[in-house]
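Supplementary Methods S3. Input chains for the assembly prediction are listed below.
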Amino acid sequence: MIRVVTLDPFDDKQLAKFNRTLYTAFGVGSEHSGSAEIPAGMSEPLDAEKLLEEVKGIRAYKDDKVLLLTSRKLKDRDLPSGKAPTSGFAKYGKDRAILSIAPFKDLEKDFKPIARHALHQLGTLWELHHCLDPRCSMYPPWTPSFNQGDHIFCTFCREKSEQKIRLAKS
Amino acid sequence: MPEGSAALQLQVGDRVVYPNQGVCRVAAIDVKEVAGQSLTFVTMRREEDGAVVMVPQGKIISIGVRKVASPSDVEEIYAFLRSDSDKADLDWKQRARTNLDRMTQGGILGLAEVVKGLQVLSELRPLPTKERELYDNARHLLVSEVAAALGTAEANAEDSIDIVLFPPGKERPKRTAAEFARPGGDEDDMDLDGDLMGLEGGELDLPSDEEPPAEPEEESSEEGGEEEEGGEEGAEDAPKKRGRPPKAKPAEGAEPAAPKKRGRPPKPKPEVTAESAEPAAPKKRGRPPKARPPEGAAPAEPAAPKKRGRPPKAKPAEDE
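Predicted structure tokens for the full assembly:
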């Protein structure tokens, strides 16, 4: 089950459409599971990694994947090889991810690129690595062409995610 | 010998890399009796999923188990990935063999070479299914080792690798087969220019064997990929040139040969002499006439007209 938890107010209709998209992409249920508060002392831009660890008040089962949705900016990560532009972050193979819609106008107007980023973060939760196919949602998200694509997976990534989901169910 | 295995002293709690399996932690080193022999076994637990493997201590080095790479090794990996030096082999058999060796040896540089080579190759054309799986495996092992070496999350380790492979703000370049051609390679050994091949000025617009018409997608089945690769191999081993063989050029100054006539060559005409001056009787068409009986012989009785139909059944004897 995918649980979308909002950290800021969003339109319910748009959230319903967003959940339908996630359901179509992964074939598992997706729902809006309420909202959560950003921990005190954290200011914009938010540290995505720290936020995922410290956010509280999220109820989910062990197999659930939680996607936090915020309209605030996330801080770019300093990595040994350079600075990584960060519009979302997910713990590889774990259960929590965060997605910021700050680089876009809103959920309605930029639905496609936001959904594509959401698929990317959720794919990371299901142990998908970055893909070589520019049309796939697992393509590195900082590339210029990423936001122009559709919210789909390539064959390899789709089959791998289905396999992981099947394993998780059994 | 695999890198980093020269003198491997393992202790419980050490993090090691098992080739093709990933980062493991030494869980125990104990002596067990097997078939009457007492052997020292190293028990390793894979960090990813907790799978346990026991290896006799004497075989640790030959298998290729080594300690996790250091941060300075990871810096070298970034430098290697950043460089534009590694071009994948276009011969799929050679490429598969090389990549398998690299994966089996289990060195971090070998993993980086597999990832880089296949990533560059994917800029020329989509990878076949098998190589896409190999790329994913190599990437997974590389990411998990870099994460272990730097003590960071796997997502950060992967992003740090991909920032080098896919620099932000830049699109991946489109490669051409010419970039993969090695100096002195099979193609160049032919030393046949367009003139010799009878392909002056691109007379025949043939598709290049090195660059097949765009594959539909990664959806191509494994067999399809192999077939395509097989074709490529054939193209490299003995480059087939389609079309006619080259025409021999006439020597300079010689008269241009008359245009060659098509069709069957004409029959040689018989020489005209006085005896044979009479025109031959025109050949009659149709069935040749039956041979007539010689004159003077008794005329034969006309044969009874042949009855048509089935011969009559033999009548049974009336006595019975």
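The mean pLDDT of chain B is 73. The longest strand of chain B covers residues 22-34.
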